[in-house]
Amino acid sequence: MRGLLCAALVGLLDRCLCLQTPTASTTTKGVQLVTESAAIDNGPNGKYGQSAFAELWANISYTSSPPFTTIRNPGTMSGKELIFPPALYTSSEKSNLKLPATFIWGVSGSAWQIEGGLQVDGRGPSIMDTVGAIQSNDNQSDANIADMGYFLYREDIARLAAIGIPYYSFSISWTRVVPFGIAGSPINTKGLEHYDDVINTCLEYGITPLVTLNHFDFPLSQMDDLQTLPEHFLYYAKQVMTRYADRIPFWFTFNEPNVGVEYLFNGWNDLTSIMAAHAEVYHWYKTQLKGTGQISMKFANNLAVPLDISNATHIQAALRYQDFILGIMGNPLFLGQQIPADALATANLNLTALTKGQISRFHGTMDFWAFDPYVAQFASPAPEGIANCAANPSSSAWPYCVITSNIQADGWAMGDMSNAYAAIAPQYVRQQLSYVWETFKPSGILIAEFGFNPIADHRRPVDAQRQDLERTLYYQGFLSEMLKSIHLDGVNVIGTLAWSYVDNNEWGSYENQYGMQTVNRTDGKFGRRFKRSIFDYVDFFHQHIAGG
Ligand SMILES: *[C@@H]1O[C@H](CO)[C@@H](O)[C@H](O)[C@H]1NC(C)=O
Ligand SMILES: *[C@@H]1O[C@H](CO)[C@@H](O)[C@H](O)[C@H]1NC(C)=O
Ligand SMILES: *[C@@H]1O[C@H](CO)[C@@H](O)[C@H](O)[C@H]1NC(C)=O
Ligand SMILES: *[C@@H]1O[C@H](CO)[C@@H](O)[C@H](O)[C@H]1NC(C)=O
Ligand SMILES: *[C@@H]1O[C@H](CO)[C@@H](O)[C@H](O)[C@H]1NC(C)=O
20: closest CA among 61, 65, 53, 74? Predict the structure, then answer.
């Protein structure tokens, strides 16, 4: 399974070091593990004692250690930091369309990509710790360091407040709260206290926090068998939601499991376990805890549009792609319907149809739609044809059996391209939003991530990185088309969260820079600096929020 993960990621990432040969074990001393029940044997050599905790980490080691050991408090920010960049002459096409005052707009990040300090304060290992966390050439850029967010969050929140960001979406590390990851195992009070302070710091600064319970960093102990996920996830979610429900109005249970299935999971039926885990948490939160917040799950989706709109097989390819990427989970969760037939019929996918009981348990557990529509892509059928491919698991295009591309039929790229897959192609935003609105009929759509990572950005001088005109054009085009989607197409878009508020660890690589701030990883201080795009992003909402 980890081998699979590595094979899948190795094409995408620069560094991918998987299973290490066992080295000297790493112990974390002075960790406060508390047990919920006296029945748990938690002596030093007990089932959940210090030896067992050290064993969790036995096969993972780091060449670098976090340069910070304490939380840094925000200093006084120089007024120079907030000087507006030169005006853009390209922003002349102004729209008078407005957004409601209730519009949720802000920025996002995730625990593993930003925090660092993977072994600090009793955190247990996660599946992501086996990727890009082990070694780096400069000892400054692995996941054990990342952006040192674990120590610098107060400064980060103060900076977001200073520039006027009203909503901040972050994720909680499951294994900081439940180091062993599993139901009945000890709760780490230091983990809970950390996120308590993150949330309270947001509120002190007038920022509303949104929380993702799991952003790919599943406990390592869970990954061999996700069948039992619902029990373990509910145990963890109860700790977190009981403690923070009074301060969190929006929750996301999982991040993008619909792409995680290809990289992280053991099989496609694990998506059913994800839905079951989500539904258990949803029902518990609403009926037992009587929580008043709203709950959803984030889906990845770069909408597939037919490469040749006049060709029926291209239309079929696009629909099949969408059935896989959104239909498998969207059908039961939003519509109370079975998984799409074309996915169920794919040979060797082993995807089992849901029972009526499962569908009724899952249906209606998403209070709104949350997705990450970075860009669109063109779809055409696999060269051997969709039906032949779907019957042949050794086909290179199996199981989607669709070829996707950012290049139009006439040979042009759909828009200005990024370092990875995103492009400045706002001409597809209305289609993306309308597809979801009309297919799954959600009450509202939250764009939970969108962003742009310029080509070879990390090699440019920092002053050039900060003048990130491409990122600004990406956001302005996207948001302008979103306004049309709301006003001309009648789609209820309730908010946007930009990915990301700072450059971070893009799953083992720092070369895909999506941030609206730089991080200095060479001077030992990890200071952030604003890029122009964050000014322009804030400015867009000042211009368009009614009464704003
Ligand atoms: C560490 O590796 C050894 C040898 O491969 C294996 O027996 C053991 O189960 C591994 N421990 C963990 C916690 O994965
Ligand atoms: C990284 O850390 C290792 C182990 O401490 C050390 O030997 C090496 O010189 C460091 N490399 C750099 C570039 O600082
Ligand atoms: C439709 O697309 C398929 C696959 O790309 C191609 O083989 C076929 O010739 C196309 N048909 C027409 C009428 O263009
Ligand atoms: C489906 O099941 C078969 C038989 O157990 C197995 O060989 C195959 O790897 C499975 N397919 C997937 C995608 O897990
Ligand atoms: C990091 O800080 C040093 C010292 O202030 C500076 O020379 C360097 O340009 C900075 N690099 C980045 C990427 O900000």
Answer: 61
Cα 391 to the chain's mean position, in Å? 33
Does the domain spanning 2-301+364-374+420-544 belong to CATH 3.40.309.10? no
Report the candidate in 488, 503, 496, 502 with the shortest Cα–Cα distance to residue 538. Answer: 496
Confirm if 96 and 128 have CB atoms less than 8 A apart: no
Partner residues linked to 131 by β-bridges: none
**List 155, 256, 280, 449, catalytic entry:** 256
pLDDT of 96 reads: 85
Query: Comparing C-alpha atoms, which of 455, 462, 432, 474 is closest to residue 513?
Result: 455
DSSP character at residue 325: I
pLDDT tens track for 25-36: 333 334 445 544
Q: Is the CB of 311 under 6 A from ligand 3?
A: yes
What's this model's pTM, rounded to 2 decimal places?
0.89
- Give the separation between CA 202 and CA 205, rounded to whole angstroms: 5
At how many degrees (to 10) do helices 189-204 and 229-244 cross? 50
State residue 170's pLDDT score.
98
Is 96 a pocket residue for ligand 4 (Cβ < 6 Å)?
A: no
| pLDDT value of position 222 | 87
Q: How far apart are CA 258 and CA 216, in angstroms?
A: 11
Q: Rounded CA gap, 459 and 461, in Å?
A: 7
User: What phi and psi values does residue 153 have, to the nearest 5 degrees?
Assistant: -60, -30
How many A from CA of 184 to the centre of ligand 5? 47
Amino acid in the structure at residue 493: V
Given a contact cutoff of 8 angstroms between Cβ atoms, the answer to whether 379 and 321 are in contact is yes
204 classed as catalytic: no
Contacts 24+ apart (CB under 8 A), 36-41: 36/184, 36/186, 36/187, 37/184, 40/184, 40/185, 40/186
Query: What distance in Å separates the CA atoms of residue 273 and residue 276, rounded to the nearest whole number?
Result: 5
